[in-house]
Amino acid sequence: MTSSGRFTRQQIAEIDVFLSAIERCEKQMRQLEAEQLAALARAMQCALGDDDDGGEARELAYRSLRLELATALQESEHTAERLLSTAYIAIEHLSAAHQALQAGEISLSHLRVIVDEGAPLTVRQSADSDAEQARKMAQYEREMLEFAREETPNRLRPIARRLAAAHSEQSMAERHAEALKRRCVRVIPADEGMADLVAHLPAEDAYAIRDLVQQLAKQALALSGNEVAEGPNAGVAPVTHVARDSRTRGEAGADVFRDLLLGSGTEVGEAASLPASRVRAHIQVVIPEHGAAELVGYGPIDSATAVRVAQGAAAWDRVTVDEAGGVISVDRYRPSAEMARFLAARDLHCRAPGCRVPAKRCDLDHTVDAVRGGATSTVNLAHLCRGHHMIKHHTDWQVSQGSDGVVTWVSPTGRRHLDRPPSRVRFRRADE
Ligand SMILES: [Zn+2]
């Protein structure tokens, strides 16, 4: 291995062989997973029969099967239940997605996203006939598969939320009002003396809290010399725990979160010394002319919430898109600042395959270096996080960009991956 991270010809040849083996295994595993799902669905059908009376005997039969499956797989009944439910919905309602798994085109994780987010569509909606319901489901499935073949499961989830919302009858505001009643805070015990504190919150609040915690953590580390301070807020009041600082951002974030709730002292309830009021949390909301508003990184939110959030914003960018959802322009377009706004609206996050680091924390990279004649234009700039920036410049990955904002990544062994601008999905039409 050379110090630059470039491979020798010999290394590339060997890695290529191993990768081919890995790809072959993955394909076989996906095929087996598809077979297992089919068997699970058949087992369930066999145990429960066809009559859908929902009686006590049926419930007992289901529990018996679930326990049988859990013991057979050495898994919890919770895991067994999830498998059965995924299998049932996939086989009954999403046969094309199941076939795509069988063919190795998507993974089980992709299928799970399609099933989870599409589940509300499997419940018959009052105004719909059976045929109408099946039509909506088939359209959701068709659109999802297009994305699933190219995106990671993590990137697929917000897309699935958007598409399912577009096909759902109940208004998003109604569903949000119902979901809001389920907000709560809970503690899940974990190993080694740890526990997860989970707050189930309105999405805009959760994203704002995370952003605030990350900013405060960054400040805390900068003040203690762990990281170089950045941005206009750098250098404000000191944060707790300055003395011992070899903390990672994750550790510092957890400390800041605890301090915000419990106070920074050793005694619970002591007042926090964090400069919370001097840091503003940032969230990005997109409100299309037609269709659902969206919290970037999460997916669609109801319009009342979007408007409430928007009222607190200092400025808005108007983004114009073409029929397919490609970003054409951002209002008051000027090079530099305006170009950056355009690209932030187009990219939303790092443009490396599967990466979701928000554009705000990325660099604008010249796809073709300026010194090699690359233009400072929107067709030659794309957001890359620090890690992927390093990979692009110091390894044999080849990156190019088309006029439509599609970024092509070619690996050292010659494997090709297209990364399409995520913003195109926001303006897809719900009714074909
Ligand atoms: Zn990245």
Explain this structure to me?
- With 432 residues, the chain is mainly alpha-helical.
- The chain has three domains: 161 residues, no CATH class; 78 residues, no CATH class; 111 residues, no CATH class.
- Helices cover 47% and strands 11% of the residues.
- The chain has 13 helices and twelve strands.
- The strands form five sheets. Strands 3-4-5 form a three-stranded antiparallel sheet. A three-stranded antiparallel sheet has the order 10-11-12, with no helix packed on it.
- Zinc ion (ZN) binds next to helix 13.
Q: Tell me the major beta sheet.
A: 3 strands, antiparallel
Number of domains: 3
Chain-averaged pLDDT? 80
Sheet-strand content, in percent, reads 5-15%
Question: How much helicity do the residues have?
Answer: 40-55%
Spatial order of the strands forming the largest sheet: 3-4-5
Q: Show unreliable segments.
A: 228-243, 265-277, 331-335, 427-432
Q: Which molecules are bound besides the chains?
A: zinc ion
Oligomer: single chain
What is the CA–CA distance across the termini?
51 Å
Nearest-angstrom radius of gyration? 25 Å
Using the alpha-carbon principal axes, give the shape.
globular
Structural class call reads mainly alpha
Order of helices and strands: HHHHHHHHEEHHEEEHEEHEEHEEE
Helix count, DSSP H or I runs of 4 or more residues: 13
Q: How many beta-strand segments?
A: 12
InterPro entries: DUF222 (IPR003870), HNH_nuc (IPR003615)
Keywords: Coiled coil
